[in-house]
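Postdoc handover notes: sequence design on the structure in folder B. Input C-alpha cells:
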C-alpha cells in the first residue's frame, strides 16, 4: 500500500514527479475512519524498515497526523519503536488487528457507499408542513 515515487523528469529537466503521484494516489481521496488509517499505518510497518517518514508517506498523513496515530498505536501495543534505530515494527497484537480488520472488510465492504434508506418519518413531516403552512 506504500507509494513508490519515481523521478519522471526528462533529460531536458522538464516534467515533474506529479505524473507518478497522480498514478499512485487515488483520484478522489475519500474520508478514512480512524481504524482504516491505523490499518494502513500497520500495513506499511509490516513491510519493515519503517521510519516515521515512511509511515507518514505510505499512509498519506501529515506530520501532525502521523504523530497522533503513532501515539495511539504505541499506547495500545499495536506497534513498537526501537530506541536505537528509530524504526517502527508491528507487534503480535498489531498483526492480530490487521487480520481482524481484513476479516471485517471482507464481510462489510468498506469502500462501497451505504445504500440510501428512505426515512418514512421525513415524508410525514413534509406532508404535515405542507398542510399546515
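Designed sequence:
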Amino acid at each position: 500500500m506504500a507509494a513508490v515515487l519515481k523521478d519522471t523528469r526528462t533529460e531536458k529537466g522538464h516534467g515533474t514527479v506529479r505524473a507518478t503521484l497522480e498514478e499512485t494516489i487515488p483520484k478522489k481521496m475519500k474520508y478514512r475512519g480512524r481504524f482504516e488509517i491505523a490499518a494502513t499505518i500497520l500495513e506499511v510497518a509490516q513491510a519493515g524498515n519503517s521510519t516515521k517518514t515512511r509511515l507518514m508517506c505510505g499512509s498519506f498523513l501529515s506530520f501532525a497526523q502521523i504523530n497522533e496515530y503513532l501515539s495511539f498505536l504505541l499506547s495500545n501495543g499495536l506497534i513498537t519503536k526501537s530506541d536505537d534505530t528509530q524504526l517502527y515494527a508491528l507487534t503480535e497484537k498489531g498483526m492480530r488487528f490487521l487480520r481482524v480488520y481484513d476479516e471485517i472488510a471482507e464481510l462489510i465492504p468498506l469502500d462501497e457507499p451505504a445504500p440510501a434508506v428512505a426515512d418514512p418519518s421525513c415524508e410525514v413531516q413534509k406532508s404535515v408542513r405542507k398542510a399546515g403552512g
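Context for whoever picks this up: The mean pLDDT is 77. Don't rerun without checking with the PI first.
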